[in-house]
Amino acid sequence: MSTLRQFSYLVALADYRNFRRAADAVHISQPTLSQQLRALEAQLGVTLVERNETPVQLTPIGRELVVRARKILLDVKDAEDLARRSKSGMSGTIRFGVTPTLGPYLMPGIVASLHRRYPDMRLYIREGIPDEQARELARGELDMLLSPLPVSGSDLHVEPLFRESLHIVCPPEHPLAQAALVRRSDFAGIGFLSLDRRHHAYRQDRDICADLRADPLEDYEGTSLDSLRQMCGSGLGFAVLPELYLRSEVGGENMVTRLTLADWSGTRSIAAVWREGAAYADSYHTIAEAIAVEARRILSDPL
């Protein structure tokens, strides 16, 4: 008889497309994974895996089974979580994904506050690319996600939290750094730095450049907001930085000059995301509310 464990192995193989990596992900040996999948195929009487392909490919019936198995496995996990939550309340470890363009500048104070209120709850925080983390959330590898909007994916609850301003900064020695007021037309042809193309920020920066008739600098992609600020400060180009980063102790405006614009403004919206029907939805709401309150407090403080 087929088992949930065998189906979890099939889902892992679909995710990683490699027997060794899939086996590592489910904490078994590669031979055991292969043996269990062959046993599953024998029990079902169908071929699920095209083993002569690299990367590993699933057959059409294999792909269809993965869709159904993934939902069953998530439902089982949520049922187990519901049982645990009924006994423990706000406790246990929550796997929390956050974009590096936000987490380091907002989460430390929130984590400390939540720990004081709920000492038995732990936040396991993982920084990553929002699009990739949305897929991890859908697969059950993360419990909750803090991300810029939009977030794509089915069966996800998206809770908008706050909106923050975006600001254009430039090298201190650039002529525009001395201007009391800058206009959109002043950016025509100016090079703008951005993060790599997997980030929401990359796509948003491209739109901003198109709007301002500025030039995206494809040869200089940052890995973090800090790297953007440092490259901008060294004279490589202008950058777009969010308000929370510019207000933070680890970020700030040293090395760059924030420009005051007469006829342009930009914002980004931030949301908390979790799976629809998650057993810990009440806990996720509590965390989301704490994040929203702290962000709004910081953004409302005078500079």
Explain briefly what this protein structure is.
This protein has ten helices and eleven strands.
Question: What does this entry look like structurally?
Answer:
This protein has 303 residues and is an alpha/beta fold. The chain has 3 domains: 4-83, Orthogonal Bundle (Arc Repressor Mutant, subunit A), CATH 1.10.10.10; 90-162 and 269-300, Periplasmic binding protein-like II (D-Maltodextrin-Binding Protein, domain 2, 3-Layer(aba) Sandwich); 163-267, D-Maltodextrin-Binding Protein, domain 2 (3-Layer(aba) Sandwich). The chain has helices at 4-16, 19-25, 30-44, 60-88, 103-117, 130-139, 200-212, 225-233, 243-247, 281-300, and strands spanning 49-50, 57-58, 92-98, 121-127, 144-148, 156-170, 191-195, 215-222, 239-242, 257-258, 266-275. α7 links the parallel β7 and β8 (215-222). α1 (4-16) packs across α3 (30-44) and α5 packs across α10 (281-300). The protein is globular and about 75 Å long. The termini are far apart. The mean pLDDT is 89.
Descriptors:
303 residues; alpha/beta; Arc Repressor Mutant, subunit A; D-Maltodextrin-Binding Protein, domain 2; two-stranded antiparallel ribbon; 11 strands; globular
Query: What is the CA-based Rg, rounded?
Result: 23 Å
Compute the number of helices.
Answer: 10
CATH architecture field of the largest domain: 3-Layer(aba) Sandwich
Question: What is the oligomer described by this structure?
Answer: single chain
The total strand number stands at 11
* Uncertain runs: none
Number of domains: 3
